[in-house]
Amino acid sequence: MGVIAQGRSHLFWQSIHAGAIAAARETGVEIQWNAPTSETDYAGQLQIMNAMINQRLDAIAVAPIDKRAMVGVVERAMRAGIPVIIFDTGVDTDLFVARIATGNYAGGRLAGERMGQILDGKGKVLMLACQPGAASTIAREQGFEDVLREKFPGLRIADKRFGMSDFAKSLAVAENMLTAHPDADGMFASNETGSVGAAQALKARRSQTRLVGFDWSPTLLEDLRSGVIDSLVVQDPFRIGYEAVKAAVLKLNGGNPVKIQNLPARLVTRENLNDPDVQRQLNPDLKKYLP
Fold it and tell me: Whole-angstrom Cα distance, residue 224 to residue 268?
């Protein structure tokens, strides 16, 4: 079966790859892993998926870069009798077998609750969003905005800009927002690249703006330990990859996977960072699975 991520370089996708291999070893299936070089290259992702359909692979699991652009190819695979599992993000069609992802809207609400708590419900907040069309991060951003509107009317979103899932772009956008709003009390970044860019900008300025990020990496965990980052809402990418392959195998064996599987996000702070269950989630044994 094929497994198509949005990118290759980030630890998040490597962890998903490892989880997919773990499930493949457990179930005895072979996986063909691929991804475009850039998380914005939906044309490249379309090419990869079309090639897998033409190969007549038994099943395909895909994390759509764009929820609209990938509709046609997902539906093409399903019509060709190839079960499609959607993972990590969403797609604007119901014609798929199962979707396994973090509960992104709930994760965004978790970030909003934390922001309201650490700022005592008042102040100016900046949002470093990911990119238009990315269903998972759109849901996080919506959840964050909804909580502020519903529960913390004293918190105002003063600026919202896109980092386009790129480290350098996210850093530049964060710097520009902090220049425009040097008195910002808080900042929310909705993915790994945004969180890294925001943290770098805050460190360079020695800013006291409180940062709530989404996703994690060794760099982000160091910034959490040092106090640059207040907290991180983290996913379990190893489990996402594992469950995506398991759902495909269940379907191929005549079963019916649960259509929508939302995995809970977790808020990680300096206080709980060293808890054993948090450490297990943050440090999957990638060397055991990846070449």
Answer: 9
CATH 3.40.50.2300 segments of the chain? 2-102+236-263, 104-234
Beta carbons within 8 Å of 17's beta carbon, 6+ residues apart: 3, 5, 33, 241, 289, 290
Q: What CATH code is assigned to 2-102+236-263?
A: 3.40.50.2300
φ, ψ of residue 247 in degrees (nearest 5): -65, -40
Share of the chain above pLDDT 70, in %: 100
Query: Which residues pair with residue 156 across a beta bridge?
Result: 124
For all residues of the chain together, what is the average pLDDT? 96
Nearest-angstrom CA–CA distance, 29 and 242:
12
What is the predicted pLDDT for the residue at 192?
Answer: 92
Bridge-based pairing of strands 231-234 and 210-214 is parallel
Query: What is residue 235's three-state secondary structure?
Result: coil
